[in-house]
Design goal:
The chain crosses the membrane at residues 20-43, 49-72, 79-96, 102-125. With 150 residues, this protein is mainly α. It has one domain (14-142). The chain has six helices and no strands. The chain has helices spanning 14-43, 48-73, 77-97, 100-116, 119-128, 135-142. Helix 2 runs antiparallel to helix 3. It starts with 13 loop residues before the first helix and ends in an 8-residue tail after the last helix.
Length: 150
C-alpha cells in the first residue's frame, strides 16, 4: 500500500519563520555554551561535576529544542506549546538571576516565545490544526436544556 503524500501547508507567516530562526539560533547558542562548560570542566582539577552537569543539561536542551523546531515547521501545536514551556521554565529564572552570558540567550529565547504567540502565528496554527472543542462545552451542547424552545 502506497503512502499518502502530506497535504501542502499554507505559507508560514513571517512571525513563524522568525520564531523558527530564533529557536534554531538559541539551540546553537546553547550548544556553544554546553561545549564551553565541558571544556572548562576538562581544564579544571576541582569542581568538575557542576560544569559537566550544566554542560550536559544545556546540550540536551539544545537537542530537544532542535527536534521541537522540526515539529514547529510542520505546524504541530504541541511543538509550539513545548517550546513555550521550555522558554518560560529556562528563560525566566536565568533572566531573573542575571547570569551574564546566558541572560542574552534567554532574552532571545523569550522573543521566540512571543513570536510564536502573536495573532498571525495563532491564526496560522488554527488554520493548520484547529483546536479541539473542550469536552465540557461539547457535553453541554449535546444535552437538552430545559430552557430551550422545542
Amino acid at each position: 500500500m502506497a503512502r499518502q503524500p502530506r497535504p501542502d501547508l499554507p505559507p508560514r507567516p513571517l512571525t513563524i519563520r522568525a520564531a523558527i530562526a530564533v529557536e534554531v539560533l538559541v539551540s546553537v547558542l546553547f550548544l556553544i555554551a554546553a561545549a564551553s562548560f565541558l571544556i572548562s570542566a576538562a581544564a579544571q582539577e576541582i569542581d568538575r561535576a557542576g560544569l559537566i552537569g550544566l554542560g550536559a543539561l544545556l546540550g540536551g536542551l539544545a537537542v530537544v529544542q532542535l527536534v521541537l523546531v522540526l515539529g514547529l515547521r510542520r505546524g504541530k501545536r504541541g511543538a509550539r506549546e513545548l517550546l513555550t514551556t521550555i522558554g518560560l521554565i529556562v528563560g525566566v529564572p536565568i533572566l531573573v538571576r542575571r547570569t551574564p552570558g546566558l541572560s542574552v540567550v534567554c532574552v532571545v529565547m523569550l522573543i521566540g516565545v512571543v513570536l510564536m504567540w502573536l495573532p498571525t502565528s495563532t491564526a496560522w496554527f488554527q488554520r493548520i490544526s484547529p483546536k479541539p472543542q473542550n469536552k465540557w462545552v461539547r457535553l453541554v451542547s449535546r444535552t437538552v436544556s430545559p430552557f430551550r424552545k422545542r
